[in-house]
Write a structure and sequence with these properties.
By secondary structure, the chain is of the alpha+beta class. It contains 3 helices and 7 strands, in the order E-H-H-E-E-E-E-E-E-H. The protein has a 7-stranded antiparallel beta sheet. A hairpin with a 5-residue loop joins strand 6 and strand 7. The longest helix is centred in the C-terminal third of the chain and has 30 residues.
């Protein structure tokens, strides 16, 4: 299993960052290697919204589609993503957003995954650190573009 956790301070509110990350349909516009994303189903249960999403990622000769269940909890400012189907043995990621007393917010992000294919897992592990940083930076850069007043 490959995993990583990071905490990033940004000059934007937790609510704004939550909304940016929750807007999954926009991921192909700015998230590296995400070439397509489609929301298959949306359900709402009180303050909790759950989306079933299909994402297509491509890196060099690899192109894979997978399905995830995305759980949005606006009240708690948490986003949980759990793997449903595709090339992984397992995949989870979690987001937590917290306003800071001095302004801005802290964005906690964690991911853990394991591919079914030994070849894909080895390839992913070889580029994971660089890819993780690039993806994290993509969200911060997207916030700069979207929230510039």
């Amino acid at each position: 299993m490959t995993s990583r956790r990071t905490a990033t301070q940004v000059p934007y509110s937790a609510d704004r960052m939550f909304s940016l990350v929750a807007d999954v349909e926009r991921y192909p516009e700015f998230l590296p290697w995400c070439v397509a994303l489609r929301i298959v189903e949306t359900r709402k249960d009180g303050d909790i919204e759950t989306m079933t999403c299909d994402m297509v990622v491509a890196y060099k000769v690899f192109r894979e589609k997978f399905r995830s269940l995305v759980r949005l909890d606006r009240t708690a400012r948490r986003i949980e993503v759990n793997y449903v189907d595709g090339p992984f043995r397992s995949l989870t990621n979690d987001w937590a957003f917290r306003d800071l007393p001095q302004g801005g917010s802290n964005v906690d992000f964690s991911i853990a995954f394991e591919f079914r294919s030994v070849v894909l897992q080895a390839t992913a592990q070889a580029v994971f650190e660089k890819a993780f940083l690039k993806m994290s930076e993509a969200f911060v850069e997207r916030a700069r573009l979207v929230f510039t007043d």
